[in-house]
Design brief:
The complex is a heterodimer of chains A (350) and B (502). With 350 residues, chain A is an alpha/beta fold. Chain A has one domain: 3-Layer(aba) Sandwich (Rossmann fold), CATH 3.40.50. Chain B has 18 helices and two strands. Chain B folds into two domains: 178 residues, no CATH class; 221 residues, no CATH class. In chain B, helix 11 crosses helix 12. Helix content of chain B is 66%, strand content 2%. Chain B is globular, with a radius of gyration of 24 Å. Classes of the chains: A alpha/beta (350), B mainly alpha (502).
Chain lengths: 350, 502
């Protein structure tokens, strides 16, 4: 009798867990559906021809074409290629709210029909934009290229081991190193390729929580770490060293034949409204002034938002003025980008 | 090591495994002392010495008090000896607490005066507040006072006393356990039983949900609004205040649940610390339901020694005010905490006066929202970083002001969850009844749910949570859903427990 009850109990446990997981699968599908795949000859990115649902930060549904570029560009027109990271990929807003689409619309209204192609991929940096320039150029044939950055994309993020990065070659010159795909898929890849959104999302959450847990203070010396943290709290960023910035900028310019605009997304203080120019960006501006490269920031547009008690970053389901660009932020960036592209067009750059 | 971290889960599992080994009582006590010391040293090993020092002082003082009482009866000389040892214990504890917690506050105020007199300021001391010092000094001090009052017998062995002082589940932020509650439990062999594990895990999970899902999500809004009240519009400030009102409750009661749950799994019972405080009909009731172990401590070791209500109405009001004022200062070395204590002290005194002079009793439907509003407004000086920002916050709260409108639905959604939970909790566990805990007897419709096989525990915050007891497919499904909800709802970057700073 006892032995007969045991399997029934376990069957109940298994059935209960399966039922719970089924319910959660349906719930998660309303919040997060995102497939990342290894694109041959390129990087791990949102699945080509795929749809992403992202309601973790903001709320957006995004669609991609066969090359993985975000839909919304107008085909059959001269193309402007826009490269960037998660701020450009912009999973947090719908296709028609992204600054690339809005800039294209603005240009259209100005009588400049262009196709603004969004090639943003989360986690990428200047090294990727250089390393994969040929791929983008062959697919898009851009008349102009825009690289959207936040300051660390040019330096810190472009030198991180484990992904595409800048390294010194034997000749002492800066070059890119593409992170080679692994011969055998790791467990995390197998989980990531799983058809269950629930399993993928669970893995994603564990990954995020584990990353955060790694930042816990050291065991038995936490007080010392706290003290050290306090001591440095008012010092600001360490030094103003920006590394081989000019070499990185040279490589970027060279990769896109000098037909390049750098678009910086500055951090905005809402009250009182102001933008403090970062050290790196100031050096970039000096470089641009010297070489004639097009460099822009949506400074005025961001300040206008602040004066209206709004912010370009943050969403109602996250935090005010923190995280990625919201719909207002995208509109502001689109305005600055459209203005610059119109200027370049009028001056005969393309 | 915080309860909501993976490190703690590993640590607790190791402790439970060690306690499951059939060892004699004295060895289990040693295991607990070692593990508790490791728990405390995990933050910083150097502060372990402070904990040991306090335990030695109070153990010796209590032992001498007891010896003097035993040897000399009530002779004047022996009473003097007892008083001397009691004074030594209280002064030592307060001196340690005063140095670590109030030294720089004192210097800051002194320097203000010296500055006005044109004298050179005294440099501040480099002091880092040892974790949990306010809690363990109070706990330890109450032990010698109770021995002096002959409420309890002192511990025979220092190891026993060290175990009481260092017991890790309540070491850092309470609940403040009296020796009279804990010491008798030390006579039995701690063993994690299936029933204790079930109840303990349910409480722990409940606390985790309150902290990581509710409190941490609310913290995002509360932190922003309190950091720059000048930036936000009036409506957003009210939302931020609501967020903090709920955050501090879920944060601290969540911590208490995790502490009580951890202890229960190990075989110990800690006192309840919260009982749906935001359902209180008046401020006196609020303090019977909020941080109950502290308010009981203040009542027994401060309010009553000050004379309580035995010296006439006027003195009673003064005593209430003074008790809360010092209670405020206990929370932190800042005038904002003093103001918070003064506001609550005044409210308690006014309420007592009102009850004495006026026959009319405020109906609960009016008293409850008014009490909640008062408690919420008092959180402003408690949370605001400076006195200036407290004033800015209050001014913009009541004078319609322009600014950032950030009416996040997250706060409203979580407020609804907490409100529904409170109301269901209030229905199941009305005022003065047994708290709604998984181990408490469920009543009425709740019991009938259990009878059909659904193990449900009503909690004052989440409304209900399934306990792994029902044995039905639905029960297992709901446990699965709860587990995923915590994993998905938890904020990745968790805020530190609010009461850790005290």
């Amino acid at each position: 009798m006892q032995s007969a009850r045991l399997p029934i109990r376990w069957l109940k446990v298994i059935a209960g867990i399966a039922l719970g997981m089924l319910v959660m699968e349906l719930v998660v599908r309303q919040i997060w559906v995102h497939e990342r795949v290894d694109v041959p000859g390129y990087v791990k990115m949102g699945k080509p021809n795929g749809t992403t649902v992202w309601r973790l930060e903001g709320s957006g549904i995004s669609h991609r074409d066969a090359n993985g570029y975000r839909l919304g560009y107008a085909p059959g027109r001269p193309s402007v290629l826009v490269l960037g990271d998660s701020f450009t990929e912009a999973l947090h807003v719908d296709d028609d709210q992204v600054y690339t689409f809005l800039a294209q619309q603005r240009l259209e209204r100005l009588g400049i029909p262009l196709s603004v192609v969004n090639a943003g991929v989360a986690g990428r940096s200047a090294a990727d934009y250089v390393a994969f320039a040929d791929r983008h150029k062959s697919l898009v044939h851009p008349v102009w290229t825009v690289v959207t950055i936040r300051e660390n994309d040019l330096y810190e993020d472009a030198f991180v081991p484990g992904k595409t990065r800048f390294v010194r070659g034997e000749d002492g010159k800066l070059t890119t190193l593409i992170d080679e795909p692994r011969a055998l898929p790791r467990l995390r890849d197998l989980i990531w390729d799983n058809p269950s959104v629930l399993v993928r999302y669970t893995f994603y959450r564990f990954h995020k929580l584990a990353e955060e847990a790694e930042k816990d203070p050291p065991l038995f010396h936490g007080a010392a770490a706290e003290k050290k943290g306090d001591a440095h709290s008012n010092e600001g960023p360490e030094g103003d060293e920006v590394g081989p910035l000019e070499e990185v900028l040279d490589l970027l310019r060279g990769a896109y034949d000098g037909r390049l605009t750098l678009l910086n997304l500055p951090y905005l203080e809402v009250s009182p409204p102001h933008i403090t120019p970062g050290t790196t960006w100031q050096k970039v501006l000096a470089y641009c002034a010297r070489t004639g490269m097009s460099c822009i920031e949506p400074t005025e547009e961001f300040l206008r938002l602040a004066r209206a008690h709004k912010a370009p970053f943050g969403f109602l389901n996250t935090e005010f003025n923190s995280g990625h660009l919201n719909a207002d932020g995208h509109a502001a960036v689109a305005e600055a980008l459209a203005r610059e592209l119109a200027r370049l067009k009028q001056n005969g750059f393309f | 090591m915080v309860f909501s971290s993976p490190r703690y889960l590993v640590f607790l599992t190791i402790v439970l495994l060690l306690l499951s080994v059939p060892l004699p009582l004295r060895w289990k006590k040693r295991v607990l002392v070692v593990m508790s010391s490791l728990f405390y040293a995990a933050w910083d090993y150097r502060y372990l010495g402070l904990l040991v020092t306090i335990s030695i002082i109070d153990y010796v003082a209590a032992e001498r008090i007891h010896r003097a009482a035993r040897e000399g009866g009530d002779g004047a000389g022996q009473v003097k000896t007892q008083k001397a040892w009691l004074t030594a214990s209280v002064v030592s504890n307060l001196a340690i607490l005063g140095y670590f917690k109030y030294c720089n506050f004192f210097l800051h105020n002194l320097n203000g005066v010296l500055g006005a007199l044109g004298t050179e300021a005294i440099p501040y001391q480099e002091i880092l507040l040892p974790a949990g010092i306010s809690f363990y000094t109070f706990k330890s001090m109450s032990y010698t006072i109770d021995v002096y009052r002959k409420v309890i017998e002192p511990c025979e062995k220092w190891l026993d006393y060290l175990m009481f002082v260092t017991f890790f589940p309540e070491l850092i932020a309470g609940p403040i356990v009296r020796a009279s509650v804990f010491l008798p439990q030390m006579a039995r062999i701690p063993r994690p039983t299936a029933e204790r594990l079930r109840v303990g895990i349910a409480l722990f999970v409940m606390g985790l949900l309150k902290k990581r899902v509710i409190a941490d999500n609310l913290a995002t809004t509360a932190d922003q609004v309190f950091a720059a009240p000048h930036m936000f519009a009036t409506a957003t400030l009210w939302l931020g205040l609501l967020a903090y009102t709920l955050q501090i409750y879920c944060d601290f009661s969540g911590y208490s649940d995790m502490a009580i749950g951890s202890a229960k799994m190990m075989g110990y019972d800690l006192p309840e610390n919260f009982r749906m405080p935001y359902l209180s009909g008046n401020i006196t009731e609020f303090w019977r339901r909020w941080h109950m172990t502290l308010s009981n401590w203040l009542r027994d070791y401060l309010y009553i020694p000050l004379g309580g209500n035995r010296r006439g109405p006027r003195r009673t009001y003064v005593n209430l005010f003074l008790t809360m004022l010092l209670g405020g200062l206990w929370h932190g070395a800042s005038w904002n905490f003093v103001l918070w204590g003064a506001l609550h002290g005044t409210a308690l005194a006014v309420h007592k006066l009102f009850r004495a002079r006026v026959r009319w009793r405020m109906p609960g439907a009016l008293g409850m929202p008014l009490t909640l509003l008062f408690a919420a407004l008092c959180w402003i000086p408690f949370r605001a970083p400076t006195f200036g920002s407290t004033l800015t916050f209050l001014k913009r709260l009541f004078i319609p002001s322009e600014g950032v409108q950030f009416l996040t639905p997250v706060v409203i959604g979580l407020a609804i969850v907490v409100a529904i939970g409170h109301l269901i909790g209030g229905m199941v566990d009305p005022v003065g009844e047994t708290p709604a805990r998984p181990d408490a007897r469920s009543r009425g419709w709740l019991r009938s749910l259990r009878e059909v096989g659904l193990g449900i525990h009503v909690d004052e915050v989440s409304g209900w949570v399934v306990v792994f007891k029902g044995g039905t497919v639905l029960a297992y499904a709901m446990v699965t859903i709860l587990a995923f909800s915590i994993l998905f709802g938890a904020v990745v970057h968790s805020s530190p427990f609010i009461y850790f700073q005290f």
